[in-house]
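anyone seen this seq b4? input:
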Amino acid sequence: MLSNLPDISDEFIGRKSELAHLSDALMREGLVTLIGVGGVGKSRLALHAVHAALRNQRRKAIWVELWPLRDDRLLIATVADAAGFADHTATLPLDALCEWLADTDAVLVLDSCEHLLSSCRHLAAHLVMTCPSLTVLATSREPLEMPGEHLVTVEPLPTATDAVELLRRRASTAGASLTDPKDRATAARLCRWLEGIPLSLELVAGHLGQRTLREVENTLWSRLDLEAEGEVTGPSRHRAIRTTIGWSHELCEPSERLLWARLSVFRGTVDIDTVHAVCGGGPLHETAVEAALSGLVAKSVVSRGAGGYRMLDTVRDYGHMWLDETGEASSMADRHAEHFLGLARSANRDWLGPRQASWYHAIRRAHPDLCAALDRSLATHPRAALEMSGLLGFFWSCCGRLREVAHYVQASLDADVESGASRARARWALGVARVLRGEYEAAGTLAASSHAEASARQDVEGMLRAAYLEGLIYLLQGRPMTARWLADRELDRAGHTAPASQGRFMCRLVRVFALTAEGQLSIARREAGELYDDCVAIGEWWTRSYAAYQLALIALFEDRTQDATAHAMRMLQGKQHLGDSFGIALGLDLLASILAAQGAGEQAVTALGAGETYWGTVGHPQRGTPEMKHVRDQLEQTTRHLLGDDRYDEALRRAARQDPDLILHELLNGTGPNG
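predicted toks r here
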């Protein structure tokens, strides 16, 4: 059972013995490290080996790309995110991750460890010690140097056979046919010169669309000969890849070289609009950017996939060296940070509208570069970092990135101490993260300070948001009347000054939750319906999902189980649309209770088991407002009565072994048990 592995092409040349060896090692060893020079194909070999080894086995694969990380601060969070663990706990991050993976039968791939060796060594040691069913597969230019580490050295391709075949196929893709015997002989010489390193061969093939093979040979030989005469240190294979990258760089058009340098500022995969926004300017006008980017793709300097454009780290490092040489490194870092601050502003502006869900997905995709922008701003523009972290905080909290919220918001608050709208917003965002981690006292302090700062400036929206946070704390602590009073107070103060705003919708949601908890079901039903309809009218999803949740809960209390099912399905569809694991867990608990009330015992237990798995992904047992405890207790009593203890326990175990995403899909589409 594969999970988040990148796609692979069917074309994979050679490596049969390495694949067999690696596949066997993955079944036997706790830690396997692929080592080799940059560009030799470690990541590609790891990807194919994991696909081959797990294709017919009930294991998961977790692929973690470490190359976007500049340091180890987000290492654990990056691994947790790839593993589907949206950590909502207050425990140490590594301990929480190890507990989550403790019983997981999976291969965890740590791709590109060489720049984080010490931290990866520490992480791998804890994982191997605490997760007996987990296999850690690392790719690195150097060993992790750990006891029990099984090393597999990835050698270059054989220069007389597989290397020539790789060059021939890549040349064919570039529009050059190497069928002539003379061309085949020339290709063989090139493969020997480049020592069979795949990245070098792909870079060479990328130039065959514009140059003949003989021209490539002559220019490359001149470069290799010059390098041989110089005092270049390091193993010959390191020199070969450096030389080829430098040679490829020299053959690029000036605009391509400039774009290569500017693209090195990105940490992750980016789309064409982002490339234009950050890298355009000067000689790189709009059409020049697109032409240069197409040229770099054709020359294998940049790869293009479904998610956008990216560079291999070896090529990106060379580009960054040239960015320093151009004197643009600082200005490009600032442009990069400004662009992603603008993205955060746009996402916040569009939160209450039809683009809300797309912004959640965009922020998720841009995560490495958002962190890079925050790192830059913290070092050079603390005020911008404070604004940006506050704007991103709620998005990140909903996506389970509570560690990043805590780290960046707190660092920004410490770096910029002046009061203002950004500081109030940042405190509020940090308070939301604290609530989701169950730290109610700390969240209350942040809510109060956020409200005080907003009140001092007569910031109506800031006061509404603070009231939502305070109301949420009281709801979770079983004090709905106080929560409703706080929401009502700010809604009355706001009057008609914020008719459709994030804070107003949130306070209306607090009212609905409070009314339901107080037993005022008819009023709660009416207001929840109005809120749901208002959200649908403007295309909003987050509030809509929780309004549907309340409508489902109210219908269950009123014994209208068909209505309850429909509302619960809408709630789960909304949370799935946003990628909110916490909300999905909450919705599955409620759906299970509704199914039990309808007499669908097997289906109810299946939903309950999937919900428990989702609760595990946030590191908490079942949570929610206090009235859900009675609902859950009734669920277990009813389903045990319907199925009997043995069938209940077996059904729960069976559900726990299944993919929760698949169960959710089946429940939403009516194809699950008894569906």
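Confidence is low (pLDDT under 50) at residues 228-235. The two ends are 24 Å apart (CA to CA). kinda curious what u guys think
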